Every structure is written in structure tokens, then in C-alpha cells.
């Protein structure tokens, strides 16, 4: 049995928004981007057991034992006080789980799902676990019918992708801005590696979906629409999902940004379609 472990933020047994069909969604803790617009900002960092959250917990769900912050699931009321206080953008509720422990969750849901999606944070920051988990699913007679997808920011080397591709059915990748400088403004990193990942995945028929995030007044897609459209055209027949930014869950300056509405998204969709991008998916709803 494989005893490799990962730091897990959350498991959703049945999700219809984390890839095609009904899926188990596994959210890993830790990310190599620091997106201003992140809707799960408490998944970016990792707990360093500073214990700043312990006395602030209104339900006594957190204690400090031998220098480690312990979380009591039974006492926790999910008030998120600890999340908003954490200077590391982490959560004391993350759990270290083995491949076997995650497979137990998958088996409970297996009859009702089409596959699993590993997200984050950034799933590929725990690549050895990701590869081991997908390999275990593919080699299990009772689970091998499930598809294994990764929801990623694409900040992964070609060598690392080639470790994952043999056991991964596809990846959904976010291209948060076209220009590297603008991408650096939004995320803290440029997007050269991300574009390379998108091209590589498309070449290996593993790009399940390309995602664009429409942030009103703070995205550069339309300014670079010809370059963006040409780039997408080179990828082949790939769905392009436009997500609408909203302020729910974000921290910092992004809380003051305007949420996207249909009038923001539709011009981008139309501009892409005019330039031959035919598989554009619009948001199902706007918050």
C-alpha cells in the first residue's frame, strides 16, 4: 500500500462545478501563486502553528498542544474566525491524509460520481501525492472507471507534467491574464510557464478546459484579443470557460473590486467567437 500523504484543505464528496459531471473534489493546501482575486485565500499558505488563532476561536475548537495547533471538528462551528485571522493565509483545519485515506472517501462516493478532481490551493505543489493517488485509482478494479482531473494554475515544469500525464485524464487551467506584467500584478508571478503548460497539455490531448477570469477594469484580454485568440486557436478544439469575478470570499484590495456582470463578460465572448474561438462557455450565474 502507498503511504504517501498530502495536506488536505477540504473534500467535497459530490460536486457539479469541478469538472464534467458529478465529481469528488479534493482541495489540497498550499499554492505557488498569491492571487489578489483568490476565492479560497486560506488555502494559499500552510499553518506554522503560531497559535494566533487559538485564543480567538469563539467555540474553543482550537488548542495548542506540544507546540502544535489542534482542531476539534466536533466543537467547530465553521465560523471562519481563524481563517480571517491567519497571517499565513492558511487554516488550522487542514488535515494530513494518506492516499489510502483519500481512497476511502472516493470509494464511498464511487457509485455516484464520474471521477475526481484535485484542486487547491494548487494541486501540483504536492505532485508526488497527486501521481500516487491517480495511479492508485487507475490500478484499482473498483475505481478505474473514474476519470482523474486536476484543476491547476499551470505553474509546473514540462518534466513534472510528464510525471503526471500517464495517470491523469485531463487538466483545467486558468490563464488569469495575457500579459506577463499584468499576470504578475494579479498573482505575483509571470505567466510564461503557464502558457507553456497550456500548450503542452493541448498537444497531449489533456487540456480539458482553458479558463479565463473576467475582472472588470482589471483584466487585459480585450487589449490583447488577437494574440489571445491566435493562442487559443493553436490549441485545437478546447472549451474556453469565462468565469465572472465576484468578491465573495476574497481578501484585501480585491474586496473593493467590482463583480462582473453579463455586460462585462459578453464583449469578451463575442470578440473570441468573431475570431474563430467556437467553444466559449459563459458563466451559469452571476453573483
From TrEMBL:
Residues in 4Fe-4S ferredoxin-type domain copies: 46-67, 68-96
GO MF term (any one): metal ion binding
One Pfam family here: Fer4
SUPFAM superfamilies, sorted: 4Fe-4S ferredoxins, Radical SAM enzymes
Domain of life: Bacteria
Entry cofactors: [4Fe-4S] cluster
Keyword list, A-Z: 4Fe-4S, Iron, Iron-sulfur, Metal-binding, Oxidoreductase, S-adenosyl-L-methionine
Location of the Radical SAM core domain: 17-284
Keyword Iron: yes
Keyword DNA damage: no
Protein family according to the UniProt entry: Belongs to the organic radical-activating enzymes family.
Name this polypeptide is given: YjjW family glycine radical enzyme activase
Source organism of the structure: Phytobacter ursingii
Amino acid at each position: 500500500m502507498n503511504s504517501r500523504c498530502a495536506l488536505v484543505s477540504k473534500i467535497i464528496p459530490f460536486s457539479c462545478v469541478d469538472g464534467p459531471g458529478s465529481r469528488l473534489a479534493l482541495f489540497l493546501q498550499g499554492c505557488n501563486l498569491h492571487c489578489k482575486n483568490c476565492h479560497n485565500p486560506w488555502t494559499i499558505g500552510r499553518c506554522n502553528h503560531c497559535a494566533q488563532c487559538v485564543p480567538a476561536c469563539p467555540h474553543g475548537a482550537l488548542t495548542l498542544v506540544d507546540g502544535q495547533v489542534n482542531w476539534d471538528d466536533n466543537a467547530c462551528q465553521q465560523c471562519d474566525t481563524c481563517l480571517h485571522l491567519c497571517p499565513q493565509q492558511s487554516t488550522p483545519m487542514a488535515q494530513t491524509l494518506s492516499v489510502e485515506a483519500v481512497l476511502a472517501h472516493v470509494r464511498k462516493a464511487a457509485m455516484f460520481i464520474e471521477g475526481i478532481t484535485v484542486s487547491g490551493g494548487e494541486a501540483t505543489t504536492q505532485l508526488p501525492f497527486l501521481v500516487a493517488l491517480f495511479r492508485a485509482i487507475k490500478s484499482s478494479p473498483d475505481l478505474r472507471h473514474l476519470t482523474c482531473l486536476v484543476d491547476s494554475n499551470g505553474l509546473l515544469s514540462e518534466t513534472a507534467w510528464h510525471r503526471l500525464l500517464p495517470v491523469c485524464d485531463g487538466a483545467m487551467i486558468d490563464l488569469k491574464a495575457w500579459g506577463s506584467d499584468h499576470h504578475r500584478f494579479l498573482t505575483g508571478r509571470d505567466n510564461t510557464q503557464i502558457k507553456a503548460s497550456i500548450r503542452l497539455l493541448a498537444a497531449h490531448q489533456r487540456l480539458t478546459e482553458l479558463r479565463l477570469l473576467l475582472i472588470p477594469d482589471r483584466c487585459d484580454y480585450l487589449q490583447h484579443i488577437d494574440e489571445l485568440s491566435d493562442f487559443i486557436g493553436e490549441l485545437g478544439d478546447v472549451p474556453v470557460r469565462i468565469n465572472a469575478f465576484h468578491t465573495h470570499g476574497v481578501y484585501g484590495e480585491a474586496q473593493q473590486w467590482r463583480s462582473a456582470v453579463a455586460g462585462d463578460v459578453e464583449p469578451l465572448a463575442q470578440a473570441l467567437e468573431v475570431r474563430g474561438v467556437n467553444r466559449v462557455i459563459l458563466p451559469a450565474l452571476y453573483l
